[in-house]
Write a structure and sequence with these properties.
Order of helices and strands: EEHEHHEE
Shape: globular
Number of domains: 1
Strand order of the largest sheet: 2-1-5-3-4
Bound molecules: FE2/S2 (inorganic) cluster
Structural class: alpha+beta
Largest sheet: 5 strands, mixed
Strand content: 15-25%
CATH topology: Ubiquitin-like (UB roll)
CATH architecture: Roll
């Protein structure tokens, strides 16, 4: 069990509890100003884009392949910080992680 700190698209702050192995996308869909996740986590829509604080981004697996291609096409892409939340699995190492949900495109 751990926590993530999320800034939604309207600047709202949320603290969300997760278990190791949970996908980051799911709780973000529940927020009023959260993500759409239109493809349901299939890594094909980029509507689950988040921008991770640098110190936390460094702890994630490197972004590559389809995820990187999709992210690079977004207007709000931030090299080294952008991720698709559906491609990130929570782990105990990520307890306290903070990120913001990228603007709607
Ligand atoms: S939910 Fe579509 S790419 Fe993540």
């Amino acid at each position: 069990m751990g926590k993530i700190h999320v800034t939604d698209r309207e600047g709202g702050q949320h603290e969300i509890e997760l278990n190791a192995g949970d996908n980051l996308m799911e709780p973000l869909r529940e927020l009023d100003a959260g993500i759409e996740a239109l493809c349901g986590g299939m890594c094909s829509c980029a509507t689950c884009h988040i921008i991770v604080a640098s110190e936390w981004a460094a702890k994630l697996e490197p972004v590559e392949g389809d995820e990187l291609e999709l992210l690079e096409e977004t207007e709000s892409y931030q090299d080294g910080q952008s991720r698709l939340s559906c491609q990130v699995t929570f782990s105990d190492e990520l307890d306290g992680m903070s990120f913001e949900i990228a603007p709607e495109e």
